[in-house]
Each structure stands twice: as structure tokens, then as C-alpha cells.
Specification:
Blueprint (H helix, E strand, L loop, with lengths): L1 H18 L4 H10 L4 H22 L8 H25 L2 H4 L2 H26 L15 H5 L3 H20 L4 H12 L4 H25 L5 H25 L1 H22 L1
Helix pairs in contact: 1-2, 1-3, 1-11, 2-3, 3-10, 3-11, 4-8, 4-10, 6-9, 6-12, 8-9, 8-10, 9-10
């Protein structure tokens, strides 16, 4: 029975992560409920969710054509931050940072809601024409990137470094934070944004998992079982998102963000 519960938790986490993020809030408590120590539960959950994120990223691959620059911009800070976060949690544990988690998630969800009017305001401030920075489903072009100021791009990369560090530390809700950053970068297609987000999640959780493995924190039998569930959930969840349509997925992203924030606040 415990193994079935962990498998189902990982399946649902993979599906949630493919759409917005927050799957850790299912896998981490499930592992704690069956007696796994907190840091080991965090490490095992992180490793288990890597294949699920890759599965979801692969499902969104068609929406990422021509997006090499965006993927590269998110890869570097994601790799660095993932390692830093994993090393930090091994030293200090989850308690200190967990106090900030609800407010980070609430803030990121609010930013996701207001990203379109805020982006329009930023474009007017920069003197750029009011036009989308990235057409839905279209390749990123030189003209598209020309509308980004260097300051804005650097800001997003630094923000992603902070998100990745948090992701390596604990990770619940980091998908919401990344979606907010992608919106400010100019991507408008929610499916394209989810593709980049899942790619970054693979980078963050991948290097964090390798760090946890090196530190001997992973419970391998549980991680392997949950990885299978996460892969299935990630694949099915990404397909469901495409069928739901962008409006419904955006509403789901906001609902998940609020739910995660309320849950983490209640946990305090």
C-alpha cells in the first residue's frame, strides 16, 4: 500500500509539473508520511521528478522550434542554481527557507496574472512599439530579441538563478516562478512557456539530484518507483494541457499557485 500511494503521488506530481509546477508538494509529504527523513525525502523527490520533467519537455518539443536562445538563457542559471540549492539544503535543512515559500508563490502567481499589462507598460517605457515579443508558437527571430533590453534579459537570468537555487533547495512552486519570468521575457504561448519551464526544471532537478546522490541522501528504491509514476504523469499531463487550450491552462496555473501558497502557509 505505501508503494502504491507513492506511485500515485509521483504520477499526479508529474502531471502538475508539466502544466505549472508544485508536484513536490505531493511527493515530499508522501515520503515524509512513510517515515523518510526530511532531507532524504527532499533528495528522493527531486531525483524522482527529473524523468517526469523530461517527459513533459519532450511532449512540448514542437512548441520550442527556434527557441534556442531562450533555452540557453535559462540553462546556465538553472544548472548553477540547482547545485547551489542542493548544497544549501544539505547544510541547513528546509525549515528556514520554507517560511518564505508561501509569499514567493503568492507573488509569482500575482505576477503571472498581471504580466501582459506590465509588459505593455515596459515596452512603452522603452519606446518600443506595442507588439508581442514572441508570437504564439512561432520561432524566435532577431527582431523579436531586438525588442528586449539587455537590462531586462540580465534581470530575467538573475531571477532564474534565484529560482533555480530555490528549486535545488526545495522546489515546490518553482514552475510558477519560471512561468512568471518567461512572461516578462515576452513569451505569450502558454505551451511554449511550459516547454521552456520543463527544460529548465530538468536542468535544475537534474544537477540537484546528482548533488544529492553524491551526498548519499537518495533512497534509491523509492526514487526509482516514483520516477516511473512521474514519467507517466508528465507525458499525460502535457497532452491534457494541449487539449484544454491556453485560457483554461492559464486559469489552472493561477489556481495551482494559489493552492500551493495556501497549503504552504497552512503548514507553517
Amino acid at each position: 500500500m505505501p508503494f502504491l500511494v507513492l506511485f500515485v503521488a509521483a504520477f499526479l506530481a508529474g502531471a502538475i509539473n508539466s502544466v505549472a509546477g508544485g508536484g513536490t508538494l505531493l511527493t515530499f509529504p508522501a515520503l515524509l508520511a512513510f517515515g523518510v527523513p526530511p532531507i532524504a525525502a527532499n533528495a528522493t523527490s527531486t531525483l524522482a521528478l527529473v524523468p517526469g520533467s523530461f517527459s513533459a519537455f519532450f511532449r512540448y518539443r514542437g512548441d520550442l522550434r527556434g527557441g534556442g536562445r531562450t533555452l540557453l538563457a535559462f540553462a546556465a542559471p538553472s544548472l548553477v542554481g540547482g547545485v547551489l540549492g542542493a548544497l544549501a539544503v544539505d547544510r541547513v535543512g528546509d525549515a528556514t527557507f520554507a517560511r518564505l515559500v508561501p509569499w514567493l508563490i503568492f507573488g509569482a502567481t500575482a505576477l503571472f496574472v498581471v504580466q501582459a499589462p506590465m509588459r505593455a507598460w515596459m515596452l512603452r517605457r522603452m519606446g518600443a512599439p506595442h507588439a508581442p515579443l514572441a508570437q504564439e508558437g512561432a520561432p524566435e527571430t532577431h527582431a523579436t530579441h531586438a525588442t528586449h533590453s539587455r537590462r531586462a534579459t540580465v534581470g530575467v537570468v538573475l531571477f532564474q538563478l534565484v529560482v533555480a537555487t530555490y528549486g535545488g533547495f526545495f522546489g515546490a512552486g518553482m514552475g510558477i516562478l519560471m512561468l512568471a519570468a518567461l512572461g516578462m521575457l515576452g513569451l505569450e504561448s502558454i505551451h511554449r512557456m511550459n516547454g521552456v519551464k520543463n527544460f529548465a526544471a530538468v536542468c535544475i532537478n537534474g544537477v540537484a539530484a546528482l548533488t544529492f546522490v553524491a551526498l548519499g541522501r537518495v533512497r534509491w528504491p523509492l526514487a526509482l518507483l516514483m520516477a516511473v509514476g512521474a514519467v507517466l504523469g508528465g507525458w499525460i499531463g502535457a497532452g491534457a494541457a494541449k487539449r484544454l487550450g491556453e485560457g483554461r491552462v492559464r486559469a489552472l496555473v493561477v489556481a495551482i499557485g494559489i493552492a500551493i501558497g495556501v497549503y504552504m502557509l497552512a503548514r507553517r
